Amino acid sequence: MTGAGRLARLVIAAGLAVGVVTAGLAGGGPASASPGDSLAGIRNNVSITDAATHQRGQLDSAGRSLRASAMDAAGYGPGADVSVDGIDFTMPDVAPGEPDNFSPIPAETTIGVSGRGNAIAFLGTAGGFSGLDLTVHYTDHTSERLWVGMPAYTDTAADPLDLSTIATTVAGRNTTAAPDVDLGTDYAVFMVGVNIDSTKTVRSLTMAGIGSVHLYDLEVTTVEEPFAVDSVLGRTPQPEDDGVPCDPRVEGKEACGPFNYWENADPSTHLRYFPASGVVPEGATAFYNEITVQSSVPSTYFMTNGYSGGYYGIQELDDGSKIAIFSIFGPNRGTVPDDRLTSKVLYRIGYGDFVIHGEYAGGPSIRIPFDWEVGKTYATMITNQPDTTPGNHAQIVTAWLNTEPVGRPPNWLKLMTVKTERPSATPLQMTGLYSFLEDFLRDGSFTEGRVRQAAYGNAAIYHARGGWRPLNRIGFTGQLSGKYTIQNDAYPLPGEPCAITEKITGGDIPFADARSGYGTIWDTTRCDQPRKLPAASLAPLDIRAPIQQATTFLDVEASVIGGQLSVSTELLADDEPVRVRVDGTTVSADDLVASSTGTLDTQITLPGPLAPGDHTVGVSGRSSNLAGSATVTVK
């Protein structure tokens, strides 16, 4: 279905010719782009597939794609001429499963474009909410830097601020596992745009992507109604409430009347990490980061090491106590065999709280006391070992914490090792590297003096070929709300350490001044001081060790007197269901659970007396897959 735009723009004139790409494309040098097809020759991504090519999809990190048959039915097939709000675009004339869009990487890409108008319109979509850091170069050698966001293809709700227009929606999608799934769900293609200087002629565009933008076409054009855009690289309040222009302030008082989006968004900021190439190399086995908390209040999460399968960092809890926390996301049902949905904990440190959390697809989470201090720098790391043994397709990820501030003799703790099955087509490497700063209380009380701020620096990945490599392309985004401020410094001033600072605060600050640097990508190679990569001695921290197979490490105590079996253990997840077996036969009730602190101390009435001799009593956590056994002897 083709969706009409809400601003009903009138296109007055248009003109576009495209020259050549001059920098930044992955996998090669400059590529030609043909006049009349603005992105021909530089398309580098597959977002539309059919039943024969569904395994090639690259629309999101899970390898999904739009259905070619649905795109054809909507009038968006190969080479189709389409119109959105009176602006004409042409869909790529390529077969399903072939590169059909240009997906800008974090490294800047410049394409030669000639045209004159008051706007540039983009036809595309995104794997998740993403954006373009865009610089428009004019023939008079001036330039203008702009930001344009691109909604996720899964977001089919109308944008209350008209920052995007749904061009079309299509039913269903393809996955790497199967074509034609989710047929009852619609997915979207959008038009977004920016306003440019109509008195000048466009010479070229420089683009850097944040997230996963997919561009099918772009047009330099003239519109009667300007695009609703953000002048400060974030969301600008455009709607009117009863005819009165709305200018929300970060304290959130009556922010834009009925637009609850501004009232309810979670306060958080994000940093996304890439090497200079823009792509994390296949085979990277560790992600290292450093953090210096500069200001904290209760209910703050300073996440340091996030990836597509989980996240890890430090927190100040509601009561002011401090912890380190590592959480794994389990696979979604239907993406792996049902008997492998539960992550298997291969190791966990012998203290702290261990739970099976319900966030995303659920998974194990370990939380240990860690009395970190404001103003001191701490190092954290996650390591990854792919398990590609026959019959398995899993990641084995470990979280490490240096409890001593950087600069002192290190004391690295191993918090937890978890094995998680992944979809068969998913690369078993760390992707989607990021960090964030979050207020997880979400109580809406953003007041002066309540500041969360941290500096992140020296992020690096490890690869067996070449050792540690810097992650020196860093993008900044954040949840967007009308009642708090997210801020971020540009790359450091001369003489300052190579660190990026992000901040959440509140107060009576006009929205137009509320954000600094939203959508910016920094190149930290420009820092004056040399980067400090992790010590080479970190390399042996299990990232080259043999893969651990299923481990029974619960310390089980058991005894039997007559027909009564006594069993105790600890280190289970809090409140998790538990199974007890004797010689492989389940003897526990279905409702047996560990305590709220992960311990088990129970008496079980056996169905009959045990025969003389040795018997194995096994205990297993049904959520964590933690297991252990003990031997009892009956005389």
Oligomer: single chain
Tell me the count of domains. Answer: 3
Named at the architecture level, the CATH assignment of the largest domain is Sandwich
Distance between the termini: 76 Å
Please mark out the parts with pLDDT under 50 across 5 or more consecutive residues, or reply none: 1-36, 231-265, 507-516, 543-552
Number of helices: 2
Structural class: mainly beta
**Integer-rounded radius of gyration:** 27 Å
Using the coordinates above, name the CATH class of the largest domain: Mainly Beta
Number of strands: 41
Largest sheet: 9 strands, antiparallel
**Level of helix content?**
under 10%
Mean pLDDT score, rounded? 77
Task: Classify the beta-strand content into a percent band.
Answer: 35-45%
Query: Which fold name is given in CATH as the topology of the largest domain?
Result: Jelly Rolls
Task: Assign an overall shape.
Answer: globular
Question: How do the strands line up in the largest sheet?
Answer: 23-24-21-20-19-28-17-31-34
